[in-house]
Model the fold of this input.
Amino acid sequence: MNGAFLEEFRNRELVQGLAKQIVRLAEGRETPLTFMEVCGTHTMSIYQYGIRSLLPDGVRLISGPGCPVCVTPVGYVDKAVAYARQPNTIIATFGDMLRVPGSSSSLMQERARGADIRIVYSPLDALALAGKDPEKRVIFLGVGFETTAPTIAGTILSAASRGRDNFFVLAAHKTIPIPMSILSDDPELAIDGYLCPAHVSTIIGAEAYRFLAEEHKVPCVVTGFEPADILQGVEMLVRQVVEGRSTVENQYRRFVLPEGNTKAKELLSRVFVPSDAAWRGLGVIPGSGLAIAPEFARFDAEKVLPVTVEEPREPEGCCCGEVLKGKIAPINCPLFGTACTPEQPVGACMVSSEGSCAAAYKYGQ
Amino acid sequence: MCSPFCRANTRFAPTLFFLFLSNLTKEHPVDKDLILLGHGSGGRLSHQLLDELIIPTLSGIPTAGQNDAAILYHDGRRLAFTTDSYVVDPIFFPGGNIGHLAINGTVNDLAMVGAQPIAISVGLIMEEGFSRSELAEILRSMREAADQAGVVIAAGDTKVVPRGKADRIFINTSGIGFFRHELEIGGANARMGDKILINGTIGDHGVAVMSKREGLELGTDILSDCAPLNGLVESLLEEGSAIHVLRDPTRGGVATTLKEIAIQSNVSITLDEASLPLKGAVRGVCAVLGLDPLYVANEGKVLALVAPELAERVLKRMKDHPLGRDAAIIGEVTEGVGGKVRMVTLVGGTRAVEMLAGEQLPRIC
Done:
């Protein structure tokens, strides 16, 4: 939270110098370059600072499946809604999940009807709720990527050591590298490089993308969130393409190590096991999720408190899947800004503050 | 913090209000029937509720004419009239409490149409079991704020409801003000070339309240900017017809308020992000919570749209006042499509600025 430290990365001259450098490097290329970011915070930052308006026409930034709320499928929301309707139950969730539409309701609607749904800023707050109210069961909605998962792993360990028996996690954690490899092989997308996520990479490390660069031949640059970071990340990607290289480079060296955060990774492997995971838009991707390990199954809401829900229904006409794959820009969805707005979202990408539709709606193109 | 409901609602008939409540439950399908928290956020959802239901039912006066206070004509004299309800949680926050807010908010709404606040009424709604000593402290604060603003608390009402039927204490205040000039100040009066001024840093109140709110210990020392603006406004009005619009950017923040003005006046507005006064700590907390300070509430700020040739004089008047030391010119009314607000970002990019959509929720990672 050091304001002065961040200022350096928002310096107008520095950013515009980098933009000019990108223009020079990309000059004379016949086909435009397409780079994908797979992190909601990158999506937000790119819109918030008007980064696209600084780039030449020949360099295109598209958003991938980087918003954790957006990639969470409808069926998960339906389960959360089903739990919210049960008596003696507190649903603890990060705020973004509230408005995500399920098949026939959302948590926000359930809250308005009287369900006990609390917004928390950390899974530890959810555990504290369980301690304060031992008569009730607290179900924490565990969504997110490798950044969020270690804090939830830590919370489960803490619940175990305290012998807490009224705390549960509805887990839908996801890992990003495998979906990146699937998208990089999609000829329709023709991705020329990845701006690799900043927070996720602090955990998994820059080396986690090595197979993408070497086996899938797609340049990767681990990139920070500030405007100068993003411009420099783009510049490094353009340079790799121009020089015919595909390697992993680390623009965000001030926080990301090649091996990542080994302590956090240990936590993850202790509490979670790799699993198949359902992604909105991408379907079930083998090995792309983190399920709660058998040793901690007593905290796994799905195992301990099974619920049956209706067959999940994707909203009619919603293009979130195509938006999450980077195949269409939010503005090209026929529902964008008309049937689907942040007040009455049809798809998850319009809900989360990190969703590309919400960002496009709020900040314009 | 004026609810937009009070704006220009000169023919309010309480009985109609209950009629519309009973009709509402019969006529609308279930999900459309729910009043959501976002309907009270001051953003787009609030505007929708006003435009579609409240105003057509109660007064029929189009929203285009809305200002912070209604202007009534009696015996050739102009009178300003406004009302607002205060439900802030927590009721005590860094830099003030619900009592200061209830007086200053109504004083400011009167000041924003250029009126001199004269008298205020106070309605207290308390929950059974509320603390008498806390009430005493809130009342002392109200008296203090009224004395500081030079208004009389002239009428009042007290109700107590059973435990659980209200949250500790809610306060409603109404106020009347007289005019000492012939100037027409209002949201529809912005003109091409007008400079946009603000009297200090943005987002302080919202961040002070949020940092105090249960479960969010951010350890910041940011104080609410809650203050009566009538003294400052009186000084600005010495510049006469140079002052076109005055608005206090409360709920929905500077972004929503400027968007309202752009729509009301059918003008285009360009903001310069680099000129926005913003405390480093506020920026930091907003970054952590995923909030945009442009959308965070203020309680002691005024946006003034003034003739360009006198903008520097008005700025000097602001800076000479204790509540305007950090005043700045933050943008202007420019050529372009009516109703649009754009911002030149810190790094020189451009993006659109829209109204707050729904509740501002914290992000998840």
User: Anything to note?
Assistant: The two ends of chain A are 29 Å apart (CA to CA). Residues 19-321 of chain A form a domain with the Rossmann fold fold (CATH 3.40.50.11740). Chain A has a mean pLDDT of 93. Chain A is about 40% helix and 15% strand.
